[in-house]
Design goal:
The structure is a single chain. Helix content is 45%, strand content 11%. Helix 3 packs across helix 8, helix 4 packs parallel to helix 6 and helix 6 packs parallel to helix 7. Strand 4, helix 7 and strand 5 form a beta-alpha-beta unit. By secondary structure, it is an alpha/beta fold. It has eight helices and five strands. It has a five-stranded parallel beta sheet, with helices on both faces. The protein has one domain: 3-Layer(aba) Sandwich (Rossmann fold). The chain is globular.
Length: 235
């Protein structure tokens, strides 16, 4: 399920982790504002709105991008263009770890009309790896996030991350294994690597060479879209 990485491919991923860590102190936390939904029908439409909560860090929040170019906004526009009545809520906070995501999950879900999203995209863990935090603790935090979402009746799509290889092969193996193990344990779909197709391509990153630019976000959304559509069909 996870994309193989070897040799020189480790270097771009390591650089990506290093820059995200720098963003913890360099970038302000998300102000909580939601991207405006794109229109997809008349105001009088009776179609039920499907709410998707995107829970993550700076990669979800849209670091360095206009709000309309962030992952949640682009995903919403793409889904609405496919004829779906959806609202994707940006619950990304720069620098957040799995512990931070767990701590704010309750109020993030409360911000959704009705107090429960239909689908939660969980994209956390990059900063746990950057800080060398115990993968076992990250696993516990992510497990609690999944449990709370599922107990609330929400569907979950788990987006995986990968550890920088300078942490050692044992650490990387333990970290990388967390996502497929949790997906199997909780019977939730897994998107193996959030930055797949973008992390290794300088043309799809901002001038910093690390965070996806607007085109890079488009690539991420297109690659993840089949997984999102599959999760929505199971609602």
């Amino acid at each position: 399920m996870r994309p193989a990485m070897s040799g020189l491919r480790y270097l771009p991923v390591l650089l990506c982790w290093c820059f995200v860590l720098a963003a913890v102190t360099a970038a302000p936390a998300s102000d909580g504002k939601q991207p405006a939904p794109a229109g997809n029908g008349s105001a009088g439409s009776a179609a039920r709105v499907t709410y998707i909560l995107a829970l993550g860090d700076s990669l979800t929040a849209g670091y360095g991008l206009e709000s309309a170019d962030s992952f949640p906004a682009v995903l919403e526009k793409r889904l609405r263009g496919a004829g779906l009545s959806v609202r994707v809520i940006n619950a990304g906070v720069s620098g957040d770890t799995s512990a931070g995501g767990l701590a704010r999950l309750g109020w993030a879900m409360d911000a959704v009309p009705g107090g429960r999203p239909d689908l939660v995209i969980v994209a956390l863990g990059a900063n746990d790896a950057l800080r060398g935090l115990d993968p076992a603790m990250m696993r516990t935090n992510l497990a609690r996030i999944l449990e709370q979402c599922l107990d609330a009746g929400a569907r979950v799509l788990l987006a995986g991350m990968q550890a920088p290889r300078n942490m050692g092969t044992d650490y990387a193996a333990q970290f990388d294994a967390v996502y497929p193990e949790l997906a199997q344990q909780y019977d939730v779909p897994l998107y193996p690597f959030f930055l797949e197709g973008v992390a290794l391509d300088p043309a799809l990153n901002q001038p910093d060479g690390i965070h996806p630019d607007a085109q890079g976000v488009q690539v991420i959304v297109e690659k993840m879209l089949p997984h999102v559509l599959s999760a929505l069909r199971d609602l």
